[in-house]
Design a protein that fits this description.
- The chain crosses the membrane at residues 244-267.
- The chain has 298 residues and is α+β, with helices and mostly antiparallel strands.
- Among the domains are: 2-64 and 150-167, no CATH class; 68-145, no CATH class; 198-237, no CATH class.
- It contains ten helices and six strands; from the N terminus they run αβαβαββββααααααα.
- Strands 3, 4, 5 and 6 form a four-stranded antiparallel beta sheet that branches.
- A hairpin with a 6-residue loop joins strand 5 (87-97) and strand 6.
- Helix 3 runs antiparallel to helix 6.
- The longest helix is centred in the C-terminal third of the chain and has 28 residues, at 242-269.
Length: 298
């Protein structure tokens, strides 16, 4: 049956099967998954459905980690941005740690941009259907090659994570399971430190966000954006405040006092060592003593 289906769809068949409940109905879905290089997962608690279904996404993500899919990117169909009536699209690509073998999936990086920007890049009129057709072709033209052939232990590692030991299809990888989760550094949280950082530019137009003056195609020295990030940068590069200047002046005055008065006084009051001449009293220290005497007499 598998061969018949693959002949009709002209691509490999992979089944992800799930068993919900505690009844003994797991043998058939498990056998179907193992026969098609897929994953079977038993879901004992209905609240675990979302977590268990993630094995589907992880399997395809790891399948993109080989050399055949190095340049793979995904385009989505144009949609309306939440900030207004502008249409845009998103292009994204999976990120892997390729310092280990097999590569470990880390996450996804993507960027959003307006269709009007693509109109300008393609040299067509704003709102042209040519831009829309180009995005549609990009989003459907390339299908990645997903195969675990030659790396069955990686697939078995995914099966074990999704459904424990009973989800395994072979016993050949018992001592050769591979890492399928990125190793976290000590003290680093799984959560972002500033989730709403991009909200700084939510109500700014394109020119304000990229510091681009109207009519120009490159960033300008005069940035019109004035969000928290811009204010913080401006404050960091501005001149010293009045309080800081006053503190520096006071510190310099104290240093002069120490060098001009305290040191000569210390030298004068220190008895000479045996065989050492008495230090010569400087003009500054002499004037200092005269001032002290006149003050005491008055």
């Amino acid at each position: 049956r598998k061969a018949i289906i693959e002949k009709k769809i002209k691509r490999p068949l992979t089944l992800f099967t799930y068993s919900l409940g505690v009844n003994e109905v797991h043998a058939l879905p498990r056998r179907m998954a193992c026969a098609t290089e897929g994953l079977w997962t038993k879901i004992g608690d209905p609240e675990e459905i979302t977590k268990k279904l993630s094995s589907y996404f992880k399997a395809f993500a790891f399948g993109l980690g080989d050399g055949k899919n190095d340049d793979f990117v995904a385009w989505v169909e144009p949609y309306e941005f939440e900030t207004g009536s502008n249409m845009g699209t998103t292009v994204s690509a999976p990120v892997y740690d390729r310092s280990v073998k097999p590569p470990v999936f880390l996450g996804v990086v993507g960027i959003d941009f307006l269709l009007s920007a693509m109109d300008q890049a393609l040299g067509v009129e704003k709102g042209s259907t040519e831009t829309l057709n180009a995005v549609v072709r990009k989003s459907t033209a390339h299908c990645p090659e997903l195969s675990f052939a030659g790396n069955i232990c990686q697939l078995e590692s995914l099966r074990r994570q999704a459904g424990d030991e009973e989800a395994l299809c072979t016993k050949n990888c018992t001592g050769e399971f591979v890492d399928i989760e990125p190793k976290q550094c000590t003290g680093v949280s799984d959560y972002p430190s500033n989730l709403w950082k991009n909200a700084y530019n939510k109500f700014k137009n394109y020119e304000e966000r990229v510091c681009c003056m109207f009519g120009l195609k490159h960033p300008s020295d005069q940035c019109t954006a004035s969000g928290p990030a811009a204010k913080s940068s401006a404050q960091g590069s501005s001149h010293l405040s009045g309080g800081a200047i006053a503190g520096i002046v006071a510190l310099c005055a104290l240093a002069l006092c120490f060098c001009g008065i305290c040191i000569p006084t210390t030298l004068r009051n220190t008895p000479p060592r045996q065989g050492q001449k008495k230090p010569i009293e400087t003009e500054m220290s002499h004037n200092h003593h005269a001032g002290k005497a006149s003050n005491s007499l008055s």
